[in-house]
Amino acid sequence: MNLSVGTVAPNFSLSDQDSKIHALSDYAGKWVLLYFYPKDDTPGCTIEACTLRDSWKEFAPLNAVVLGMSVDSPKSHAKFVEKYKLPFTLLADEDKKVVAAYGVWGKKKFMGREYMGINRVSYLIDPVGTIVKVYETVKPMEHASEVLKDLVELQKA
């Protein structure tokens, strides 16, 4: 089960594509889009990452950072970042503790086969670390613009 709005986002400490350690607490004072995706360099994940990349310049003026997370290795993330020139951090949750804490690890179905994997879910976390929006049905092509629109609205409030 996913975490809900109003919940304090669980902290974590994970390696990125360059094997640099990032903790959620490092981003205190900023808005954070924490997006979970199934696998590097697959069609939906590539579309989502590239639309975020193409909207990247619009996040900074809103005091927002983008953190992507999957269970792929830092080495896999590095190839994905390089191939698509991604300007944001991808975190490697190889032991699946963070995906479990956020409730995005679960049963999936593909072509009639059931398996365990990451559900494409994103969390928008405010500058004090509270989840203010949960995106449970992410459309990769529209996700970046949806989040940017929400950031503008939330910052007006």
Write structural notes for this entry.
The protein is an alpha+beta fold. It has one domain: Glutaredoxin (3-Layer(aba) Sandwich), CATH 3.40.30. The chain contains 5 helices and 9 strands; from the N terminus they run E-E-E-H-H-E-H-E-H-E-E-E-E-H. It has helices at residues 43-54, 56-59, 74-84, 97-101, 143-156; strands at residues 13-16, 21-23, 31-36, 64-70, 89-92, 105-110, 113-118, 122-125, 131-135. Strands 2-1-5-4-3-8-9 form a 7-stranded mixed β-sheet, with helices on one face. A two-stranded antiparallel ribbon has the order 6-7. The longest helix is centred in the C-terminal third of the chain and has 14 residues, at 143-156. The radius of gyration is 15 Å and the shape is globular. It starts with 12 loop residues before the first strand and ends with a helix.
Keywords for this structure?
157 residues; seven-stranded mixed sheet; globular; Glutaredoxin; alpha+beta; two-stranded antiparallel sheet; 29% helix
